[in-house]
């Protein structure tokens, strides 16, 4: 019996090296294993009672049918990265901005706003369900421009959300409740979490063509015909700028045609704006697609996020805006968004909302933010160019790498398949998503050549 791997695991010598809590759990598990093996008869009654109750607790869990969930395709990459001890490792998985030294970056303007907030010593009372009024005003104005008729006519229902994801989720709940027979059309491919959000909200979705691997560009004809073919009154999810993961946006002319088709089909445009100001460096330019749709008098939904453009990832600050045909409708829509939010999370967190409101509401801080945002966008553009130059200089196969320069935003869609992406990670310690996306925000100039070597090797030597 002593030779049984189960019982030898339970021996006190094996467990004594473990820290206290782990040792307890270890012994607990071993005890339950031992129980199965020996049976109750061999143990005196006092021990038996103790061990049986422990054993029951472990073996008869009500949760035994819960299987292990797979790691998240994006956030799980960071977990794997942290476990790698190789010096050359690069985390190009999640879209989080890093400095040239590959350190996380807190914007100076955010630090200034926080210093002011500390001085003011504001309280921590609950926010109203819809969030901080000054934030909701600032966020809608940033999106549409202060003089936009939709703002002046009070036709926008704005509710502060738990960043982009929470705002999308709230909109999905609104669709599920008020448009139960409608579906959402999402681009193929899209940000990995979109499908989860609609699945969990029980909103049916289907895909429209977006990316053409042959041209490494937009499949515009495919996109238009799929939007046309969808049942009238569908929601069409569009990335306002810097499409994730492809980095390919429609041209202004193509946006107009997309709007024409959506209008013809009575669809409802639903924008995900997670990168305003981060794509081009200009807040206004990156909002032009949304503003064009609003200028047509359409009703539309827009989810916003301040994770990237203000680096407020962990503050979970964003908003859902619903542009309505009248202020009266907007009023009612807002009341229902609040009704959906209340049982989900009651009311949103205050800190990030105050940061945004204080920065946008102070002309000095606002200008400083725009400069810092432009410099973050500029750093990403410069590593994009350096990566392209390194690929061209090192690869003599004649492959055209210029698609990398045509993409915008923080990502590059390399065209590497899953096996090639695995090679990037397993051989080169470059962590990225398995769809071939790399986050250039996690790259420094010093690492561009190394990354180019990894891409060239994976592209040519792995099929
Ligand atoms: N929408 C899109 C298109 C996004 O790319 C992201 C973030 C979000 C919404 C949500 O961000 P938020 O909830 O933090 O506001 N996408 C990241 C991170 C940057 C992630 O997957 O959560 C990405 O690496 O794709």
From TrEMBL:
Swiss-Prot/TrEMBL GO biological process terms: amino acid metabolic process
Gene3D superfamilies: Aspartate Aminotransferase, domain 1, Type I PLP-dependent aspartate aminotransferase-like (Major domain)
Catalytic activity entry: L-aspartate + 2-oxoglutarate = oxaloacetate + L-glutamate
The Aminotransferase class I/classII large domain, residue ranges: 88-455
Cofactor(s) for this UniProt protein: pyridoxal 5'-phosphate
Subunit structure: Homodimer.
Protein name, as recorded: Aspartate aminotransferase
The species this protein was found in: Erythranthe guttata
Record lineage: Eukaryota, Viridiplantae, Streptophyta, Embryophyta, Tracheophyta
């Amino acid at each position: 019996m002593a030779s049984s791997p189960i019982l030898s695991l339970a021996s006190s010598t094996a467990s004594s090296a473990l820290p206290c809590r782990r040792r307890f759990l270890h012994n607990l598990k071993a005890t339950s294993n031992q129980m199965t093996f020996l049976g109750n008869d061999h143990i005196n009654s006092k021990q038996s009672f103790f061990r049986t109750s422990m054993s029951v607790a472990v073996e008869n869990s009500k949760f035994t049918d819960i299987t292990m969930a797979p790691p998240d395709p994006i956030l799980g990459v960071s977990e794997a990265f942290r476990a790698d001890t190789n010096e050359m490792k690069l985390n190009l998985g999640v879209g989080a901005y890093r400095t040239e030294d590959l350190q996380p970056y807190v914007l100076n303007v955010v630090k200034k706003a926080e210093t002011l907030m500390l001085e003011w010593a504001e309280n921590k009372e609950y926010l109203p369900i819809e969030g901080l009024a000054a934030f909701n005003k600032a966020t809608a104005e940033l999106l549409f421009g202060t003089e936009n008729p939709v703002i002046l006519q009070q036709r926008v229902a704005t509710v502060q959300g738990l960043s982009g994801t929470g705002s999308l989720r709230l909109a999905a709940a609104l669709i599920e409740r008020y448009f139960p027979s409608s579906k959402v059309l999402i681009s193929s491919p899209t940000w990995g979490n979109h499908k989860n959000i609609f699945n969990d909200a029980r909103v049916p979705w289907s895909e429209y063509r977006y990316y053409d691997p042959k041209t490494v560009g937009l499949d515009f004809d495919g996109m238009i015909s799929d939007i046309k073919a969808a049942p009238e009154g569908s929601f069409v999810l569009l990335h306002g700028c810097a499409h994730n993961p492809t980095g390919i946006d429609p041209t202004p002319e193509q946006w107009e045609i997309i709007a024409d088709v959506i209008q013809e089909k009575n669809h409802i445009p639903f924008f995900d704006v997670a990168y305003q100001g981060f794509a081009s460096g200009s807040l206004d330019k990156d909002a032009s697609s949304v503003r064009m749709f609003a200028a047509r008098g359409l009703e539309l939904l827009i989810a916003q996020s301040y994770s990237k453009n203000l680096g407020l990832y962990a503050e979970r600050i964003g908003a859902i805006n619903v542009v309505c045909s009248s202020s009266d409708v907007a009023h009612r829509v807002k009341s229902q968004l609040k009704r959906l939010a209340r049982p989900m999370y009651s009311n949103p967190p205050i800190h990030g909302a105050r940061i945004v409101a204080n920065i946008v509401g102070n002309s000095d801080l606002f200008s400083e933010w725009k400069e810092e945002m432009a410099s973050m966008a500029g750093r990403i553009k410069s590593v994009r160019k350096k990566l392209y130059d390194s690929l061209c200089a090192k690869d003599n196969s004649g492959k055209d790498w210029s698609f990398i320069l045509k993409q915008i935003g923080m990502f590059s869609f390399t065209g590497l398949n899953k096996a090639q992406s695995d090679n990037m990670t397993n051989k080169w310690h470059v962590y990225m998503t398995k769809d071939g996306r790399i986050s250039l925000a996690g790259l420094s100039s010093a690492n561009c050549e190394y990354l180019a070597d990894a891409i060239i090797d994976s592209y040519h030597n792995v099929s």
